[in-house]
Amino acid sequence: MVCLLSAVFAFVAHAADAASKHQAVFKTLSSKPAVKAALEQIRREDERTLREQIEISEIPAPSRKEEVRAKDYLRRLHELGLTEIATDSEGNVIARRPGTSRNGPTLVLAAHLDTVFSPDTDVKVRKEGNRYHGAGISDDARGLTVLLTVLRSMQENKLRTQGDVLFVATVGEEGLGNLRGVKALFRDRKDIDGFISVDGTDSPRLPAGESEVVARAVGSHRWQITFTGPGGHSYENFGTPSAVHAMGRAISAISDLQAPTEPKTTFTVSIVSGGTAINAIAEEAQLQLDIRSESASALAALEEQILAAAERAGAEEGKRWGAAPVKVERTLLGDRPAGAGSSDSLMASTWIGAMVALGQKPPMPVAGSTDSNVPLGLGIPAITASGGGIGDKAHSLNEWYEPVNAWLGPQGLLLTTLALAGIEGGPQPLLPRRR
């Protein structure tokens, strides 16, 4: 209880400090007629934003098959008046809104195109009461739409930032997409100074009026481990090492491992398969497992123990029957870097300050696994923020979205963008250049 209270008091103190740190910046921004008009437009056009969100959600976009949605999104960016738009070699849609200063920072606003759903999934959105149900309606049709809403408000109110703003729709964020889109973005571009991902919504499980911002990256490694033995008939070849038995030994050993609680580090064997018949000694078996941590070193240490346990299991199964070890092969399926972000980083404190300037409670900084993992892993300032409204059941056919005060998401993103990138006539950018 003491630790919990200390954490709560520390957060309250941090939130108050974050809100006051940039108070002068947001006071200046909020006093500008063009900024006021842009914020009012976002709220006034809340229903338009929702309609566009539904339209985007109803375009299928499974990971590695995002092309149709990407083409539609590129069209929408063109219609908003941007001319420097391209699709890169990985499939990301990248649009540059140039700043007024050659010395300004480059800020990325991103949302991901892909969903976890198969190509034949029904993505039609239906309304039930105040909720909109649809596969991908929140994750991440909401984020994609918020980027367009913010861009529209900047264009129509002639808000010129000092730094460049890149509007990026990424591919491959979900699952075994392995963050391939954002990895390609940072592989190909060395001019990015800050990164904001808009992914999902606020949670209905939080008390009313409370929200979160992802300021730290939970890294993950996902492995497939294959066990291969000689196989044989269960009676005639009894005494032959079994791939399934070797896998069972591995799972038992892995389940007994102790993972650190601080930094939080987790593991799970999530999928298993193997064998061909009930009366056959299994020739092959496979398991898939997920390892996660906020710390790259803690993740690596636990991973080393897990992989060693799998190797021992193959050897022990062979030794049990006086035979050669069961062969153990491993394949890395996913690699998401852990990040060194912090709850009091420039990006997090700016987002918190923006939401406080809008009359909201300070968002709680948390850890998560999103596109922001990549820049955080590279030491580049980044956060992942809510697109506004509430939603739940992501990654399921029961996913839903409810536009409760939904305009606050794009309003917060607009203010944060203007504060970080600076605005013509001041205030100056909060985000420093890295180059």
Q: How many structural units, i.e. domains?
A: 2
Residue-averaged pLDDT: 95
The parts where pLDDT drops under 50 for at least 5 residues are 1-9
**What's the total count of β strands?**
18
Main beta sheet strand tally, sense and closure: 6 strands, mixed
Strand order of the largest sheet: 1-2-6-3-7-16
- CATH topology group of the largest domain: Aminopeptidase
Q: Span between N and C termini?
A: 45 Å
Count of DSSP-assigned helices = 12
The quaternary structure here is: single chain
Set down the secondary structure blueprint.
Blueprint: H1 2-21, H2 23-31, H3 33-44, H4 46-57, H5 67-79, E1 84-87, E2 93-97, E3 106-112, E4 126-128, E5 131-133, H6 141-156, E6 164-170, H7 180-188, E7 194-198, E8 212-217, E9 219-228, E10 232-233, H8 243-255, E11 265-274, E12 280-281, E13 284-293, H9 296-320, E14 327-336, H10 346-357, E15 364-368, H11 373-377, E16 382-385, E17 390-392, E18 400-402, H12 408-421
Helix pairs in contact: 1-10, 3-6, 3-12, 4-6, 6-12, 8-9, 10-12
Structure description:
This is Aminoacyl-histidine dipeptidase. This protein has 2 domains: 2-218 and 338-421, Zn peptidases (Aminopeptidase), CATH 3.40.630; 219-336, 2-Layer Sandwich (Alpha-Beta Plaits). It is built from 12 helices and 18 strands. It is elongated. The chain has 435 residues and is an alpha+beta fold. The strands form 5 sheets. The chain has a 6-stranded mixed sheet with strand order 1-2-6-3-7-16. A 4-stranded antiparallel sheet has the order 4-5-18-17, with no helix packed on it. The protein has a 4-stranded antiparallel sheet with strand order 11-13-9-14, with helices on one face. A hairpin with a 5-residue loop joins strand 1 (84-87) and strand 2. The model is unreliable at 1-9 (pLDDT under 50).
